[in-house]
Design goal:
By secondary structure, the protein is an alpha+beta fold. It is built from 4 helices and 3 strands, in the order αβααββα. Helix 2 crosses helix 3 and helix 2 packs parallel to helix 4.
Length: 79
């Protein structure tokens, strides 16, 4: 019983983080990795192979910023 409650709380926390992140207009590799439960390296590899530089993603201050369209595409495809 306690284990079910613990699992429910963790799921609610993940859903809350997802909702907050989706309301945030900036998608970085780490944000997308966290939302998709993948590693940053996996996200970076997929982005560089499947997205167009300067259109779907760009560098800003040493971070890769991903367009909302591509970020959501990746997150939904990996669930």
């Amino acid at each position: 019983m306690h284990e079910n409650i613990k699992q429910d709380i963790l799921e609610l926390k993940r859903n809350q983080e997802l909702i907050i992140s989706l309301l945030t207009p900036v998608y970085t590799i780490s944000t997308v990795a966290k939302l998709s439960n993948r590693t940053s390296q996996a996200v970076r590899d997929w982005i560089t192979k499947n997205a167009e530089p300067e259109v779907d993603y760009y560098m800003k201050g040493g971070k890769i910023i991903i367009s909302e369209k591509v970020a959501l595409q990746y997150i939904n495809a990996r669930r």
